[in-house]
Amino acid sequence: MTRLRLPWHDRPGLAGGIDTDGRRAGELLQLGFGSVEFGTVAAHPQAPNPLAPLVTRLAALPPRGAASSAVGIGIGLAPGAPATAVPTQWLDGLHGAWQVADYLSFNLSARAHRPLLAPEHHMMLAITLRALVRERDRLPRRVALALKLPLGEHPAPLPAIADAAAHAGIDSLTLVLADPPADRADQLTRLAALARHLPTGPALVAVGGIRNANDARAALNAGASAVQVHRAFVDHGPACLDDLSR
Fold first, then answer.
1. DSSP β-bridge partners for residue 103
2. Whole-structure pTM value
């Protein structure tokens, strides 16, 4: 088995947080990114950013052409949801979003969600990730599954849940690099270490501090399969794609 590479990884992706509800979907999907991630949303009707309106808007878009970006949806949790709500809300997110997305990204990188990375929640997350893969495999249309998590900084260990995600059959790990980092070289070293630790299986997507072609190349050389941008788009709009390709 070799490291998975998804078709949209050939071009930089646009990270979640730019468009949480799909109001700009028609515009963003035509800019030239490999993928556009919408959200993060929650599969709970009382959440501030609920899944249902986003799905409705994406379903109403005209058919996408070959040059259009892949559609990603970031799935999180309703504010204040306990750890015990993770399996239900993530599975509800899968069932609610698979028809309109090319991939779903389950988000543990948001500050409110990071306590779930504590060791006491590891078994619950591992079981949930396996359940997501089983449920995905029963669907009539395949949607890729990603787990988004912070890469962390020295001296913290590499994220242990990455192993569980790989063993569960998750397709991609979106690794959030510290931005700005205390030490950029340390972030790239950690990325390279995780790539060596997981030489096969999930694609590794780096996001955080990717501003230009040099940043993208450094992440790819460290073992990333692809990169996403956020701040570069906020600062420069679609022109950031030119900076990334130089």
1. 72, 144
2. 0.95
Quote the CA–CA distance of 171 and 68 in Å, as a whole number.
Answer: 21
Alpha-carbon span 183 to 90, nearest angstrom: 34
Tens of pLDDT, residue by residue over 2-55, are 677 899 999 999 999 999 999 999 999 999 999 999 999 999 888 899 999 999
Question: Which residues neighbour 72 within 8 Å (Cβ) at sequence distance 6 or greater?
Answer: 13, 16, 35, 36, 37, 38, 101, 102, 103, 104, 105, 146
∠ CA 136-137-143, nearest 5°, is: 50
- Amino acid in the structure at residue 9: H
Whose tokens are 């690794």? That residue is 175
Taking CA atoms, 202 is separated from 54, 78, 93, 115, 135, in Å, by: 27, 27, 21, 23, 18
Place of tokens 């929650």: 42
The end-to-end CA distance of the chain, in Å, is 32
pLDDT digits (tens, 9 = 90+) for 93-129: 999 999 999 999 999 998 889 999 999 999 999 999 9
CA distance 126 to 74: 19
Distance between CA atoms of 71 and 29, rounded to whole angstroms?
Answer: 8
Token pair belonging to 97: 């979003």
The backbone torsions φ and ψ at residue 203, rounded to the nearest 5 degrees and listed phi first, read: -65, 150
Interatomic CA distance for residues 164 and 151, integer angstroms: 15
What is the distance between the alpha carbons of residues 173 and 205, in angstroms, rounded to a whole number? 6
The H or E element that residue 148 is part of is strand 144-150
CA distance 187 to 181: 7
